[in-house]
Amino acid sequence: MSENGNKMREIRVEKVTVNLGVGQSGQPLENARELLKVLTGRKPVTTFSRMRNPVFRIKKGDPIGVKVTMRGKLAEEFLRKALEAADNKVSRRSFDERGNFSFGVKEYIDFPGAKYNPKIGVLGFDVCVTLSRRGARVRDRRRMTSRIGKAHRVAREEGIALAEQAFKVVSE
Fold first, then answer.
1. Eight-class DSSP state of 154
2. Which CATH number characterizes residue 146's domain?
3. Burial status of residue 50 (CB atoms within 10 A of its CB: 0-12, 13-18, 19 or more)
4. Domain range holding 133?
5. Which residues lie closer than 8 Å to 51 by C-beta, 6 or more apart?
6. Roughly what angle, to the nearest 10 degrees, separates helices 27-40 and 72-85?
7. DSSP H helical segments within 41-86, as ranges?
8. Can you say how many angstroms the Cα of residue 104 is from the centroid of all Cα atoms in its chain?
9. Each residue's pLDDT expressed in tens, for the chain with a length of 172 residues
10. Is residue 117 one of the residues assigned to a domain?
11. 31 Cβ partners below 8 Å, 6+ apart?
12. Facing residues of 128 across strands?
């Protein structure tokens, strides 16, 4: 329950997004896709560049990475493992004003249960955690969209407190 027993005030993990950017298409992108499929058990979606970057020879619309979005129990299980791979440390600067936070795992072999695959090599990935309260859906739904009051939004300090209590995160 929440601070006063009100379920609507309870903060929960809405989704966990795992992103792996490789910057180019071809075999590196296929390796990244295979890695995310093995780590999450879900089918990855290709991400495309939003702008042109001549230094890296990237055109707008080029496939440059893969991502997987997880919700519910699967998301929380993955988050616990990913935090373990990151030594349960997340910088306070990694939390935004809405309590969401992101962190990176430098090498996938640090992830619990992952075995090194010489075909893939050594890759790291980013984990983005989105927090919300019940009823936040009214902001995102298609029909009858409504605003959420300031008291019902998740604040930065509340996100830090949830991460420290529920996931044993040490914020630096």
1. P
2. 3.30.1440.10
3. exposed
4. 7-171
5. 60
6. 110
7. 72-85
8. 9
9. 556 788 999 999 999 999 999 988 889 999 999 999 999 999 999 999 999 888 888 889 899 999 999 999 999 999 999 999 999 999 999 999 999 999 999 999 999 988 898 888 889 999 999 999 999 999 999 999 999 999 999 999 999 999 999 999 888 7
10. yes
11. 22, 119, 120, 121, 123
12. 17, 102
H-state helical runs in 50-131? 72-85
Distance CA 45, CA 139 (A): 25
Q: Write out the two tokens for 67.
A: 């991502």
Give the separation between CA 35 and CA 44, rounded to whole angstroms.
9
Residue type, 96: D
- Is residue 66 within 8 Å of residue 38, measured between CB atoms? no
Instruction: Please report where in the chains the tokens 């009858």 appear, as a residue.
Output: 144
The tally of domains found in the chain comes to 1
